[in-house]
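Why this split exists: single-chain examples teach little about how molecules sit against one another. For that reason, every record in the complexes split bundles all components of an assembly together and asks for one structure covering all of them. Below is a record exactly as it appears in the raw files.
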Amino acid sequence: MATAFSTAKFSTQPFPLNPTSTTSHDSSIVFARPTSQFLGSTRKFRLTSSSKFNLSRRSKTVVAVSDVVKQKKSKSSPSLLITKEEGLDLYEDMVLGRAFEDMCAQMYYRGKMFGFVHLYNGQEAVSTGFIKLLKQQDSVVSTYRDHVHALSKGVPARAVMSELFGKTTGCCRGQGGSMHMFSREHNLLGGFAFIGEGIPVATGAAFTSKYKREVLKEADCDHVTLAFFGDGTCNNGQFFECLNMAALWKLPIVFVVENNLWAIGMSHLRATSDPHIYKKGPAFGMPGIHVDGMDVLKVREVAKEAIGRARRGEGPTLVECETYRFRGHSLADPDELRDPAEKARYAARDPITALKKYLIENSLASEAELKTIEKKIDEVVEDAVEFADESPVPSRSQLLENVFADPKGFGIGPDGRYRCEDPKFTEGTAHV
Amino acid sequence: MAVIFQGVGAAAALASSPSNSFDSNKSVFAPRRSFSVRKGASFAVVRSDGTVNLNPKDRRAQLLISNAVATKADSAAASSSSKPGHELLLFEALLEGLEEEMERDPHVCVMGEDVGHYGGSYKVTKGLAKKFGDLRVLDTPIAENSFTGMGIGAAMTGLRPVVEGMNMGFLLLAFNQISNNCGMLHYTSGGQFTIPIVIRGPGGVGRQLGAEHSQRLESYFQSIPGIQMVACSTPYNAKGLMKAAIRSENPVILFEHVLLYNLKERIPDEDYICNLEEAEMVRPGEHVTILTYSRMRYHVMQAAKTLVNKGYDPEVIDIRSLKPFDLFTIGNSVKKTHRVLIVEECMRTGGIGASLTAAITENFNDYLDAPIMCLSSQDVPTPYAGTLEEVTVVQPAQIVTAVEQLCQ
C-alpha cells in the first residue's frame, strides 16, 4: 500500500518513535483483539486480512521507552526520562488540571458557571506532556475543552476561573466563557466552539512564524504552534486542508489529536472509515505518530521530537494520543453510552496515578513531597474560586467595547459624529 | 460609452457626456473632463466631508475631517497646482494600492488562489509575487475555509493579510471562519487579539457567468458583528478603500465587481485613502435621493441622464460603506430631498437595501414625503441566458420609472 511506503519513508527521519515504521497496512490487526485497550466501542472491528497480530506492535517503540524505565527502576541512573525537578513540575501541572476541572464541576452544579462546560479529566498527560515543553512565545490553539490547555500554558488559575464565572477579571473579560479561553500574554490563541475551526488559526500562527523568519528576517524566530483537537475533528475538512498546507509549506506546527474515542456519543469507530488517525499524516507528507496518551512521559518524549522537528524547520508532525475523558463530553452529558468496563480500564491508567507511581518507584520524589504539591494546588484552586467569586461582573459599559479594535467601525451617526463618540456607547446603552 | 463623473457642476458634466448608452463591457473609456481642474475639489470624488462647498449644512461635515481620512489632497484642494495624476484601470488601481501598502509595511501579505504566479484571476495581484516573493504573495491550495482561517491566525499573530476570494461566491466556503473567527475573535478574546485582515474579491452579476458565479455576498455577511464591509466602484475609491482597509485594525471585507475592473479614471499621484465609513456624493440634487453602490451606480448615472433630460434633479450617493451605513451623508440627503430610492444589485430579500430601508425609516422617518422605494435584483438564481440575466438585475429604465413614480 502506498501509505505503508510513505510511513516507512518518514520513519527514517530522525524520529525514533514512529511505531508504523515496520508494520504494513495490516497493523489494523491490533483492533482484532477483543481485550485490546483501544477498542472502546461495542462494534467489532473486522479484519480485512488474516495476519498475525501483535498487541504491542502498535505502540512498539513507546513500549521500548517504558521498558527502559522498568530496567532502570532500581538504579538512580541518569537515563531516567526526567529529572526530579521536571517530574515535580509535570506532577504539579497535571494535578492542577485535575483539581481545577473537579472544582469546575462543583461550581457548575452550584450555579456559579453556566452553559457548556467541557472537562478534561483523564487527558492531563497530553496537555502537560506537550505544553510544558513550550516557550512562552510558542502558541497553543485548542478547542472547547481548553481549561487545562490554558493552565498548562501559564494562564493563572484565577483568570480562568473568573472567565468561567463570567467576571471582568477573566482572561477574556468574561466575554468568552468556557469555550473561548484566550491569552495574548501566554500566546493561547483560543478556545473554539466549532470543532476544526481552530486548526486553520493554528496554521496561520505557524505561518506567521515562518514569515517572520523568512520575510521579516527575524532569523531567530523559531516559534512553534501546537494545535489540539479531538478524534471527531479528524473527519472534518479543515483538518485535512490544514495538514496539506502545513506540510506543503513546512510550517512549524504540531497537530495533536486527543483521541478519546468519543465525540459526544459518537464512537470514533462508528464515525471513521480508517480509525488510525496517525496514518493520515503520511498521506500528506508528514510523520504520523501514535502514542499512549495516558502516560505523560511517553507523550513528552514524542512531543520533544515533534516540537524539535518544527523548531528546526523540518515541518509539521501529526501526533495521535490515545487518551480518555473520565467524565462526559460536557457537564450536560449523561454519559450513558460508554461501557463502564471501558471506563474502568482507563481509570486504571489514570495519568496522575501513573506518574506518581513512577516518581516514587524511581526515588524521584517522596509521598510527602507529592502530598505537599497536592495541598498547594488545592489552595491555588480555592483561591481561584474565591477570587472569581469576589470579582465584579461586567458592567453594561463593557458591552460594546471590544466589538471592533477600531471603534470607528460602528460608523457615522445621523449627527455627523462617529457613533463611538456618543456617550451612550461608552455607557453601553447605545443600540447598534 | 458613458462618462463616469462625480462632483459639482453636474449639469455641465452631463452635457459633456458623449452618448446615452452604457456598456460596461467595453474595456476602455475616458472621462471627457480632466478632473484636476474642477474647482474646489481634489479629484474625482466629492466627499461628504466638505471638500466641495455645496451648502452650509456641510460645514459641520467639514469638522469631521479631523476624524476622517487625512489626505494631503484635501488641504491642497483649493490650489489646483496639484499634479495631474495618472490614468489607470480599476484593477490597476487596486493593484497599485495593494503594492503601495506592501511596500509601506512588510507585514502586509496576500493569500489566495492564483494570486502569485498567475497574478490573480482578475490581475489585481499581477507582478506582486515577482516583486515580493512567494511567501508574501501566497498561492494557496483550493481550501477557502482553511486559508481564510490561516489568514485570521496570521492576523492574530502580527501579520496583515489580504485574503482574496477568487470569486466572492467562493467565500461561502469560508463562512465559518469569517463569521466565527474574523468577526468574533476580537470580542471573545476580550480585546486581546486584533484581526487586521482584508478579505476581498470580485462578486456581483457578470456577463452570463451562471448562478453560482454571480452571487452578492454582502447581504449574507452584513449581519456578522465585528466586521466592516465596503464596496468600491471607481478606480479612485478602489485604491483608496484598498489602502484604508489594509491600514484598518478591523477586519474589512472589500467587495469588488467583476464588470468594473476595466473602468478607467485619472487618479492622484500622491498618497491618499478613502474613509471606510463614509459614503460618496456622486451627484448632488434636489428632488430625490438615490442610494446605490458598486455596479448599480453606473446604471443609476445612466438613468440620471435621462431623468435630467426629463427635468428631474436626482441626488446620487454611492454609499460605499455597506456596513456600517454613513447615516450622516444619507440623512442630510434625505432631509433635503424627502424622497429615497435605493438601487442595488443584492436580492430583494434581506439585502443591503432592506437594511438601509430599515435604517432610514428608523432614523429619518419624519423627513420622508413618500415611502422608500427599493429596487433590487429579483430573488432568482441568476440565469445563464442573457435575456433573463438582464431582467434579473435593475436596469436604467426601471430606475427612471421609479423616480417618476416617487416624484409624483
